[in-house]
Amino acid sequence: xxxxxxxxxxxxxxxxxxxxxxxxxxxxxxxxxxxxxxxxxxxxxxxxxxxxxxxxxxxxxxxxxxxxxxxxxxxxxxxxxxxxxxxxxxxxxxxxxxxxxxxxxxxxxxxxxxxxxxxxxxxxxxxxxxxxxxxxxxxxxxxxxxxxxxxxxxxxxxxxxxxxxxxxxxxxxxxxxxx
Amino acid sequence: xxxxxxxxxxxxxxxxxxxxxxxxxxxxxxxxxxxxxxxxxxxxxxxxxxxxxxxxxxxxxxxxxxxxxxxxxxxxxxxxxxxxxxxxxxxxxxxxxxxxxxxxxxxxxxxxxxxxxxxxxxxxxxxxxxxxxxxxxxxxxxxxxxxxxxxxxxxxxxxxxxxx
Lengths: 179, 164
Description:
Shape of chain A: elongated
Radius of gyration of chain B: 24 Å
Distance between the termini of chain A: 85 Å
Strand content of chain B: 35-45%
CATH architecture of chain A: Sandwich
Shape of chain B: elongated
Radius of gyration of chain A: 35 Å
Largest interface: A-B, 39 and 59 residues
Oligomer: heterodimer
CATH class of chain A: Mainly Beta
Number of helices of chain A: 3
Number of domains of chain A: 1
Strand content of chain A: 35-45%
């Protein structure tokens, strides 16, 4: 009986030896998980909302276009966490497909949006005519900041752009999207 | 004789047992310390970052966790990250987002980048019979050119309480 008691006592003590540290350490650490989801994140900013092309001169008519001294006319800036493209169109939903004309002596014929020529980084080439459909201006990869310099020319004709008239087109729309 | 040896053995064994029990109950501080660390939630989900979060360089979640310490000895709570990178899913997600893009702080203090080595979050004196709460803020660093679209997770942030 005494032997049995001793074994029982030792067994109880040893059980405490094994179990006690586990019980003390079981809640002394905690693990945490963190998560987030990011989608296509794109920002397009514009340095100016209005471009004044100035008053047309005889020389402009001779050249076939009017430009202005500003270079560039405005600058777009893209930030994106993915590949992107910037497109431009003449938004027919807002202003129609032609310039607005004000003045007593404006031409009868509508001045089309295609008379607006735009191009990046000054006119080293003929430029691209604005249309009612999106045209890609620039593409790129993920960036914190990329500038796109835009210049404009507007077609002029002695025979079409007659009279004393103010022309206005308010719907050149740039859009950035993921590619 | 047999009976006497048995009795003698029993006496020695009892003495050893008593000594062992004594050590167990009143021995060194490690065996004596009663410490627990609780946490209010084990999964923290950040909102989807906005462009302004990218511009600011990160997204923050204040009071994201509350740790509760109970200790009958002076204590410290430490934190470490056991994986070097985040996990991500998505065709173009950034598989190399580093552990250090996760920053932590006790609310009101300065952020520290998560490390693979234990960093002390807070120390304190014995709390018993009460407890002490530690409020934790997190910040995830973001970069326009690195953090491509995807779902990112870091499941290896470990807090531990120990005796000072």
